[in-house]
Amino acid sequence: MPYEYLDDIATSDAAFKAWGDTLEQMFIAASEATMNVMVGDLDTISEEQHREIRVDSDAIDMLLFELLQELIFYKDAQRLLLRVSNLSISEQDGQFILQAEARGEELNMEKHDLVVDVKAVTLHHFRVEQTAKGWEAMVIVDI
Amino acid sequence: MAAIKDFIKISDTVWEIPTGYKEGMRVPARIYATEKLLREMDEGVIDQVTNVATLPGIINYAYCMPDGHWGYGFPIGGVAGMDARTGVISPGGIGFDVNCGMRLVRTNLTLEEVQPHLKPLVDKLFERVPAGVGSTGFVKLSQGEFRRVVELGARWCIQNGYGWQEDLERTEENGCIAGADSSKISNKSVERGYKQIGTLGSGNHYLEIQVARPENVFDAELANAFGITKPNQVVVMFHCGSRGFGHQVATDYLQLFLKVMEKKYGIKTLDRELACAPFSSREGQDYFAAMKCAINMSFANRQVILHRIREVFSDVFHKDPEELGLHQVYDVAHNTAKLERHNIDGRYREVLVHRKGATRAFGPGNPELPGIYQKTGQPVILGGSMETGSYLLVGVESGSQTFFSTAHGSGRSMSRRQAKKKFQGKKLQQDMEQRGIYVRGVSYSGLAEEAGAAYKNIDDVVAATEKAGISKPVARFVPIGNVKG
């Protein structure tokens, strides 16, 4: 997968970098990386439920922050483990709008290898940037 | 990391980084540690504690406790007192898990009495105190009632039969901090939290059965005052916080502060995670009132868990919890900001003390302490790793040097990823069982991340706090049973 966990940053938390040729691909990779902190094997999540995600922000990095927070919200509020697809980002009057589909199921200790809970996305060293190859994000999530 | 030569050695356990180290530092930073612990600290600590020193209104120093390590915003182990009139409040100085803390419960049982029942006891606790990702509790509430819980804290639990009246005075703030206003919290935060009362959560959260061996009681008189009276006495210690509710409250206000900090208040920070607002501003006061709701949720959470512990012990030993002497020793938080009065250069001032991974440790005679602990000073509970042990300490008068703050645990020395590469959860569980520690966890990889060797030596941390004069050890407890989040 186009993400990598970083060993030596923020000792008690989890840090990762995510990449993509396009902004949309990178956002999906970062979503997967966030969920993979909580669930050992993402392929064990069946697509039984469906949620539409729509978030907006005036900054592209905070748009990613909002998306990842949505996934954390559903995990607690509805006990849903979700994987993101069909993600699109548009811009209107300086506001970025993200729409995506999220599919998954209720978490199940027997079925899913649940590792550790993600409490929040932190803004420490948080960044989204365009590189020669596409897009890259650096994220530290609070454990 | 900054070289030892960058520090001014104030004493064997206090190291200062002067304001010249980084542009914008308003006060020096002070790290409390032995030279050994200081050398082991990661570079993030130095960077973060000096970032904290740049925040408006900071008084005296930006502190880091001996268990300090790289966090986000503040380091874990970070303490900063802000002037209530001119200073700021920052969610990054409190942590997402608002009022995460420790509760210690004693029993009148000994190791010899508990040993034959240890497995059913731990198994039943594992069953009745849900842990792990997305866990929900047995208390069924409407979202409206949850809003009452977060205003009333542990008091709500006592009113609803989940505990004893005496538990309240043995909880910081009597289990209900004044000024919690549920009109300042979002629906989202309520949705995340209203089913989670009575759950441990995950990560380094745990519930442990521990033993006070006679050779580990360092101050018999104080131990006695805290109810640790017989050889090999069994105690229960647990560590958890305000769950998804607290995490969302912190996230909501982090986002709000980012919007107003620079545009409205002209404040720039070196790390966005230090986003803040003037404490006296509308946004600052709203966050303070919302954060207090999370403080109360956390007190209620630990109160319901205590209720469950009493039920389980009663079931396993076929006696009433009263007969088993299941009295709470104390409940103390290590992720908060509190408005306190402190003596600053001979004058008492209102100070907003941020403690992130640091424990309040008031000395004897502090008016905030309940009658039973007026003479002794405040009990301080330090959770160690699941393999090594934990401590009961007490606050001391000389703690005024750090706004009466001390360490909160042993502090990690190895990242979660490194620990998972080095240890294997299932084998660790078997090894621990051979050493007399029965562990039940939700996840083997989660267990591996919490291996004892991933943490600093808690004895070193405690010794550093004692030598520095910020807290004093009373007893050390060794684990025999553990429910891992």
How is the secondary structure organized here?
The complex is a heterodimer of chains A (143) and B (485).
Chain A: E1 3-6, E2 14-20, H1 23-38, E3 49-57, H2 60-77, E4 80-92, E5 95-106, E6 120-130, E7 135-142
Antiparallel strand pairs in A: 1-2, 2-7, 3-5, 4-5, 6-7
Helix pairs in contact in A: 1-2
Chain B: E1 8-11, E2 14-17, E3 29-32, H1 35-40, H2 43-52, E4 58-72, E5 74-83, E6 88-89, E7 101-110, H3 111-114, H4 118-128, H5 143-152, H6 154-159, H7 165-169, H8 187-193, E8 206-212, H9 220-225, E9 233-240, H10 243-265, E10 277-278, H11 282-317, E11 328-333, E12 335-344, E13 347-356, E14 359-360, E15 379-382, E16 390-394, E17 405-406, H12 416-422, H13 425-434, E18 438-441, H14 444-449, H15 458-468, E19 472-484
Parallel strand pairs in B: 3-4, 18-19
Antiparallel strand pairs in B: 1-2, 2-3, 4-5, 5-13, 6-10, 7-9, 7-11, 8-9, 8-19, 12-13, 14-17, 15-16, 16-19
Identify the biggest protein-protein contact and residues per side.
Answer: A-B, 39 and 51 residues
Helical fraction of chain A: 10-25%
What is the CATH C-level name of chain A? Alpha Beta
- The proportion of residues in beta strands of chain A is 35-45%
The number of strands of chain A is 7
The counted number of beta strands of chain B is: 19
Order of helices and strands of chain A: EEHEHEEEE
What is the global morphology of chain B?
globular
CATH architecture of chain B: Alpha-Beta Complex
Q: What name does the CATH topology of chain B carry?
A: tRNA-splicing ligase RtcB
Helix content of chain B: 25-40%
How far is it from the N-terminal to the C-terminal residue of chain B, by CA? 32 Å
Shape of chain A: globular
- Binned strand content of chain B: 25-35%
CATH architecture of chain A: 3-Layer(bab) Sandwich
